Amino acid sequence: MDHLVVSTARRHPEAVALETPGELPLTYRALVEEVERAARFVASAVGTVPARIGLVGAKCARTYVAYLAVLRLGATVVPISGAAPADRIRAIATAAGLSLVLTDRVGGAVAELTAAEDPTVLEVAALGGVDDLPSVDPVPTEPTAYILFTSGSTGRPKGVPVTHAAALAFVEHNIARYGTGPGDRMTQVFDLAFDVSVYDMFVAWGSGATLVAPGPMDLVHPARWVNELSITHWASVPSVVSAAVGLRELEPGCMPSLRLSLFLGEQLTLEQALAWQRATPHGRVENAYGPTELTVFVSAYRLDEDVESWPETSNRTVPIGRVYDHLDSVVVADGREADEGELCVRGPQRFAGYLDGRDDAGRFLAGADGRFTPVAGRSPSAQDWYRTGDLVRRGPDGVLVHLGRLDAQVKIRGYRVELAEIEGALRRHPAVTDAMVLAVPGRVGSLELVAFYLGEPTEARELRASLARRLPTYMVPTRFVHKGAFPLTGNGKVDRRRLPDS
User: Fold this and answer.
1) pTM attached to this predicted model
2) Can you give the residue ranges of the AMP-dependent synthetase/ligase domain (predicted)?
């Protein structure tokens, strides 16, 4: 993947590659030079470069340089959210077999990695004066470009390895689809531990566009940020729209520089899309869809400029479009192809299987000619279909509408979350005997988490602090409700639907 940046630097050496808050912009020539210096620094510091290297950092030049330096070294990069607590960093490091973690600064949860079994932490902030280090010897490149960890129903993070080939298939398709290039200015609002960052970085750097990272408050006031930095290409979760509408900062025509706005990670409602389109008079709005296992996203639906021609869907969400032509897809219900059911996909963007093979169980289907059965007793093959767990409806024109999840996973601020993982973490509190977590509509149009628990009544701030030591911020519920008992269905199971009213 790093060769895309090198190739662009040869074609457009003086074009601006990266702009980060409070730092001087980096041209493509400068970015490649910094990456080479960082790679030399890391190689000289560790001797033998490990096959996988963790990365924890904020949206600053050093972090992006370190990301590319890992790839330059032929290793697999394992991005970890800078907001993750030390326990989660340890869990990911253990699952990925990390012996080395790079960081833009030693502090916060990273500073707590001091136990003997913890990986070595290497600060890459001080790269000045290392030009005399020996060059990096060519090493065999790991076929896996990156590993991202999603929430797991087992209560442990679930690793998703994505190969260079799968990432390149995705990036090259989208560079051609959107025609990005020098002069375009693309946002990078997603955490590097979230897969859409791959779209942001490599569609920009593979085409000669400028990647623009936001400051801490820029997403709170998106129109101001877009106008101040002349953003042309936007990508974010839809909840940003609702928040801006709530602040009355999304006036018609307020973002004239935007030419493309891409939303993904959550269902995009027609009301959200309309508010954003009216604010971007010279742009177009697209709704994209895809799980991490299929390399960022696999479909997109472009809304027409004429609002009157927009589709009417049963759940008032924008369709997710058709799956890309270079991928195969099928909708399955009860083991047969159907027009409404679970979306299953295979092709060059599909991952080969989870880092822990036990997580593959039940996630793939084998079959063709309209009949499908779960893969069991073997590893998935290239001909098997990945089960997305998403319920879709396919229209007569082949366009898909996302209807919801088939399991207990939900999307919170664009992150995929297993409610069972939160429930398991909450049960570890000594005052809690049982817990259930629901995702309910929030005040700004996105989902929020509400925890219902049994045991001793406990201050919400104590429960929140307990979870914050084990889970990322986006997985910590906003509300905690004590119950004397959970409502049950006729067969004795907890009735989640009745929890809020019981």
Assistant:
1) 0.87
2) 8-355
